[in-house]
Amino acid sequence: MVRISANKVVRLCRILAALTLLVSPLNSAHAASGFAGEFLAVGAGARALALGNAYVAVAQDATAGYWNPAGLSGNRMGTAHEVHLMHAERFAGLVDQDFIGATFDAPFTDRAAVSLLRVGVDDIAFTALPNPAAPLSADNRPLVTSNEPSADYALYLSGGRQMGDRLALGVSAKMIYRTVADFTAYGAGLDVGFRYQLAGDLVLAGNLRDITTTPIVWDGGTDRIQPSALIGIGFVATWEQGKRRYCFRVETVGTHRMMRGPCQSMLASSTHSVTCHC
């Protein structure tokens, strides 16, 4: 049985608080929108969704390119080749989410990954006033003129590398394509992740997302995704019957910070995920 002293728990909380303060300057991009990158926060992988954003501390599979590219360091899974597929239907099927990720060997990295995230909504009602020149009234109510689809895509190219006995670093470059009806947008950004082995199976990890304040260029203007930080602590408790993982996380987006833990394994029935090892 694993026992953690109260002093160690206090120290871990102080580390999380300090890291949250360190990354808060990233969120000073006033031109960035609070909702431009919401589709990038939906998550990836059924197991990861069950653990919530705390998965940043334990991601080492083909979803690591999304959660924390530093998890691609080393060869902890016993193989460098893995494929992960996921499909989820949210809000009673109104929103479709798909994710595919694969790991492979690449120069200058321990492992690399390529991932594609898609979030789509069909039949969005577009409305217009019968008389655009007149104000809204009981005789001039909006009417549905068409039903249009919306789709958001994010392509990740990621790599991780062990930098020493304790520290691992990773980078994810991502390209974004968005479309709503006849409107389209393109963008590109960068995520940087780290993993640090504190002691034994105790790991401190984090992912600094959109550190370049990712621009999203629409047909009529430019929006930006503000930087955010996802930081977590994970550890493995070992019994004769097997292992159990625990993880905590701190998330900072803009001026909002949250701390969650411990994690509960709860899987929504509308999420389906498959992982293949080669």
Outline the structure in words:
Helix content is 10%, strand content 50%. It has 278 residues and is mostly beta strands. Mean pLDDT is 76; it is low at 23-31 and 249-269. The protein has helices at residues 6-23, 46-51, 64-67, and strands at residues 82-90, 95-104, 111-128, 143-162, 167-180, 183-199, 202-209, 215-218, 221-224, 228-239, 242-253, 256-260, 271-277. Strands 1, 2, 3, 4, 5, 6, 7, 8, 9, 10, 11, 12 and 13 form a 13-stranded antiparallel beta sheet that branches. The radius of gyration is 21 Å and the shape is elongated.
Characteristics:
single chain, 278 residues, mainly beta, 10% helix
Could you write a compact summary of the structure shown?
The protein has 278 residues and is mainly β. The chain has three helices and 13 strands; from the N terminus they run H-H-H-E-E-E-E-E-E-E-E-E-E-E-E-E.
